[in-house]
Amino acid sequence: MPLDTHFTNQVFKSVGTRPLRPDGIDKVTGRARYGADYNAPGQLIALVLRSPHAHARIKKIDTSKAEKLAGVKAIITSADLPDLTGDDRGMKDTLENCMARDKVLYDGHAVAAVAAIDATTARKALKLIKVDYEVLPHVTDLDEALKPDAPVIHSHIFTSGVTPKPTKPSNNNRRSEYGHGNVEEGFKQADVIVERTFKTEQTHQGYIEPHACVANVSPDGQGELWVCTQGHFVYRNQCAMLLGMDVSKLRVTASEIGGGFGGKTHIWTEPLALALSRKANRPVKLTMTREEVFRASGPTSSTSIDVRIGAKKDGAITAAHAVLRYQGGAFPATWADFGAQTSFACYDLKNVKSEAIEVIVNRPKVAAYRAPSAPMAAFAVESVVDELARKIGMDVVDFRIKNAAKQGTQSSYGPVYGPIGIGPTLEAAKNHPHMKAPLGKNQGRGMACGFWFNFGGQTCVDMNVTPDGSVTVAVGTIDVGGSRASIGLMAAEELGVPFDQVRVVIADTSSLGHNDMTDGSRGTFSTGMATIAAARNAIKVLCERAAKMWDIPEDAVVWENGTAKPAGANAGSFPPLTMREIAEGAGNTGGPIAGHNEMVADGAGVSFATHICDIEVDPETGASKVKRYTVIQDAGKAIHPSYVEGQYQGGAAQGIGWALNEEYIYGKDGRLQNAGFLDYRIPVCSDLPFIDTVILEIPNPNHPYGVRGVGETSIVPPLAAVANAVSNATGVRMTHVPMSPPRILKAISAHKG
Amino acid sequence: MRYEAPDSIKAAATMLAKEKGAAFVLAGGTDLLVKMKGGFLEPDLVVDIKRIKGMYDIKKSAVGFRIGAAVPGVALGENAALVKAWPGVVEAANLIGSKQVQGRCTMVGNMCNASPAADSVPALIAAGAKVAIVGPKGKRTIPVDQVAVSPGRTSLKKGEIIEAILLPARPAKSGDAYLRFIPRTEMDIAVVSAGVNLELDAKGVIKDARVSLGAVAATVLLVPAAAKAIIGSKLDAAALEKLAAACSAACKPIDDKRGTIEFRTKVAGVLARRAVMIAYSRAGGK
User: On chain B, which terminus has fewer CB atoms closer than 10 Å, C or N?
Assistant: First the structure.
């Protein structure tokens, strides 16, 4: 598809404006339908029985008593989900995660599920299921899991990426390495070297809406699923595989989504609901409780990271090295790779090496969380960068500017950068009034940079011109952060019609080609790109129809300001035809008018941000309060600036929570102790200041309007920005996130001696 | 499960006494309903006391205040006389839960939930408050610090209901205060807390004091040594240090998801020191 990418001095009519959000009224009035708002006639209520053990062999499951309970319509165990995954190890792990097979691998791992006429009956039935466990030794801490005497969770895992191949299985799943140059030579040239080890605890995305679905499988083998998800096509493909259905026979409709942040990119209970429905021959509704969401959905990794960076006295970094250990929960993963790839991506480095180590522990299978793995790596690296700058005696912003990557830099993870925004965000930070504002007593200021790749992927869009000339756009990417508004704006821009003449909907999986899920900040980028292409195809049809109406050649018609016009004086003299006029005549000129596009959206532009944080620390209690916070980030082009600001603020808010209080706390028994919002502390409104935002626009040359994804980068710098602020407020370098009051107080006390 | 809503306290006590299964009193329900919904409690009988006369009343008399068992947090905050006399008790009760919870939650419920972290309890104990109990065998009155015996357990016998809290009348130059530590700004449970009540003489010297600590032992503690540290002083630095040290020394906390032994022990002293200064100023001390 030929997409015009000459965005320099582009003049926009709709793009860059701030119309009211199309989903706003429904959401604030309660009309919007979320996952648990779907109901089917005659539906059953399903509940899941979960393991109380972190690691145990399942010797026997006796469901006979529960089956006899009046009102129970179906009970399933792994026996009802035969392994149909073939050689696909990843899907086999997904199947085993959805329902434990031989062993339970974490507290909360599903072992059986019940569908009954109501929740009370289902609850009674759960109590009647008897599971015989042989409890095994467990390990929930990633550093403990790497020790030679740690209990080995999977006997089939031998560390990959090392030679020679190990002879014994271990919890060290995989090792990989990125970088270039020679770091040891680089360290020899350094005048100052800072080396530290950091630790971050496991956090959850904390989306307000728990996972929920209604499944309906009929005896003819056709099924429907209504579900809260970030990717209904992916859910369809995976569920169909696990249940042995033809993909085309499972139709998935996505609900509105009450937050996902990467956590709704994986299937958990959906195959169980489908299997129960198939067995009971009734629709089945399955909603997770908050406790289940914490224990058994997909939080992000806990980590331990070693960073060593050396620099000359003039501030030039000579070498940078990191070893990053990430746990992926009870199954193999590649989360440490993302950490290693992003760790030094902000800088132009001659000698750089980052090593990734993937660890398996008895915790839930890790899922993506907004720029997955990057925040922890940035915390470690940006803390050392901050300390190094101070040791050299250089301003922390100037030090970063001196070493910042730019167009043509070979990134630490491989590719050579095109036009990028790290330098401009740093310059903007340097000149921002926040940087010069005075600090009060017990206050400290910190800043940090962050990077995220962004992603494009498979995308399919249908645009239809309705008989009155208004436009519907059917897309297959879930709207997690305002994509319906931004896609509508891009459609309006391309067609030359007002925004409110365009309605964007999320189509079900039987109405559109496969779409990858909404992840990698790809919604506005990739679906926008496909929408622009679809609009250009629709314009071509509109011009053809105008040509027919005027009886002139097709190439004698041009599209301008939402109307068809004769291309020039030679084409003839006709008043412009509006969308409405052409649409009204469509029945006589060839039928409905539509534009379609399918693509793999390549060229997602990388994104950079710089954050500034002021914090006040009570030296007697370790309590901290963020006083001021500024986000500066490159958006490429902000299609709907209010949503872009919202993404910047949302990422910062989640990052501040992660930095200060959020953490999974496991007991010695391997059980999660704080599976609820009371003791898993996401920030409430009064915990945060207003988060100030600055949008920079360094166009992405691969998108017709210059768009870069904006959803994820904003969560990358906060851990480091807050840690640098706390370190500066207290005079003690903080190396363990979250910096909860007990940790801060302990660090201050230890420093005092 | 049976739900009953009798109109006399005697009938309520009889129902509870007669029930063979698990029986619970319902006032605000902000603990009970949450536990039922979470599957932690499965009552056979719930006795709602909100229709009983007097349960919503705050009565002021020469001997002090009588606060009915169903009076919600928000009503305490709206009672000007109570706020003036016992600002520490009211601010403690008003910290429980959220705005929505405040419309329902009660101090008696907070007490009978028997959590060592209950916000209203340290303030009530510092205030020297008592509770009026009705049971199958008649009425009795006990100090608040004798209600909870261990986490989740009270000294109430089967069929007994606390019908009111009794706060003493205020002498001149007296003041109270309550502070708690939570990692965020609201909607949280105390990691450690301190309630202080004191009375000054004409010269501004502390002549009587009670200091109480929450979330640092199995039940809320009354710490006489901390009171002793400041009685006879005008809160000079040495007295404050002695008070903080006495509080830290009295702590018998645990390490748990909300805080460490080390943290609770240190911060107990800090909070007590800060609360004493607020109470002192409220009492007119300078």
Answer: C
Q: How confident is the model at residue B286 (pLDDT cuts 50, 70, 90)?
A: confident
Q: Tell whether A750 lies on the interface with B, counting CB pairs under 8 A.
A: no
Q: What pTM value is reported for the model?
A: 0.97
Residue A177 phi, psi (nearest 5): -145, 145
CB atoms B184 and A661 under 8 Å: yes
Distance CA A507, CA A474 (A): 5
Asked if A620's CB is within 8 angstroms of B267's CB, the reply is: yes
How many Å lie between the alpha carbon of A461 and the closest alpha carbon of chain B? 44
Please tell me what DSSP assigns to residue A166. P
What is the rounded distance in angstroms from the CA atom of residue A705 to the CA atom of residue A702? 9
Asked if B181 lies within 8 A of A621 by C-beta distance, the reply is: yes
DSSP A54-69: SSEEEEEEE-HHHHHS
For A19, other C-beta atoms within 10 Å of its C-beta total 15
Are A112 and A63 a contacting pair, CB within 8 Å?
yes
In the stretch 161-200 of chain B, residues with CB closer than 8 A to chain A read 181, 183-189, 191
Residue A266 CA to residue A187 CA, distance in Å, equals 42
* Pairwise CB contact (< 8 Å): B266 & A673: no
Shortest CB distance from B186 goes to which of A674, A684, A742?
A: A684
* Whole-angstrom distance, CA of residue B69 vs CA of residue B14: 17
In this predicted complex, what is the ipTM? 0.95
Domains of chain B: 57-168 (3.30.465.10), 174-282 (3.30.390.50)
Across the range A407-411, mean pLDDT stands at 97
- Judge whether A657 is closer than 8 Å to chain B, CB to CB: no
Question: How many residues would you count in chain A?
Answer: 753
Which of B191, B262, B270 faces A620 most closely, judged by CB atoms?
Answer: B270
